[in-house]
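Quick start: load a record and inspect it. Here is Snurportin-1:
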Amino acid sequence: MVDIPTQLNGTHAGNGEGWVVLPRPDGKRCLVIAANGTTIARTHSGSVLKKFPSALPSGSRKTKYGADQYCVLDCIFNDVDGTFYVLDVMCWKGYLLYDCTAEFRFYWLQDKLSETSAATISSANPFAFQPIPYFDCSPEGLATAYYGAFSFSKDGLLFYCKAGVYTLGLSPLVLLWKDATTSPYPSQLTIVLTVTEAFACETIEGHALTTLAPETMTGHEIVAGDLVRCSIETLAWTVADDSSVVVDATGVHFQKRCSAQRGIADSWTKIAHILSTSCSIQHLLEATADVGMDTEG
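Running the structure step on this input writes:
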């Protein structure tokens, strides 16, 4: 999140308008698929994180249904407490929810998970599945998500547009925000970039933040199209009259070449809000109040 969305308040919005806010658990983002009597969790790069039986529909031999009655969940796995915190649901017993609104998906997720024993750890369900609490984006709801104590350590806040459908990749309808109160890693400014033929390292939008030296390319066997992780000291941006954005970074240092399974580069907005003075929790609280609904940060 770089700028505060207009109409961030979700309490008085009708017909699915407005936003909800969720505390994001600390952990590893993964995709959980329960199908044909087995449950598999995969990282964003596609590698297998866990393979196990679960109490999800079709997640074990005991809960197995037909081949078309699988489940797909967007989760964060916390290895400290052995819990999959469920962010979102894309499919439940074969019923596709990609085109359903976030408001409906969150209701469906809470309701359907409560009908299973997936929240209880047992030999048939070695990892718990817990839905993440969500709140209307009112001053009270945002304050609860920000200041409240939960069963997990937080790593930022997630804002979902109630009317938004599930989108793969970047979406302006799902925003991540964090600071020193909500995250143990607020100042770790790292970003994954794509290497071009000219050795430039670009964000997913095509903003070049640095250029690799030929010896770095050779020493780490990097070729055009590879993804690399870099640390950044400062990031600045300007928005032109035509709404185009110019991004400038300083203190960019190469860290490592990423696995080919990583997929895509990051957006520059991933870390921009951390450096923004116009997107503090106080600004967000003001934006969720009725008087601030039409004010952009």
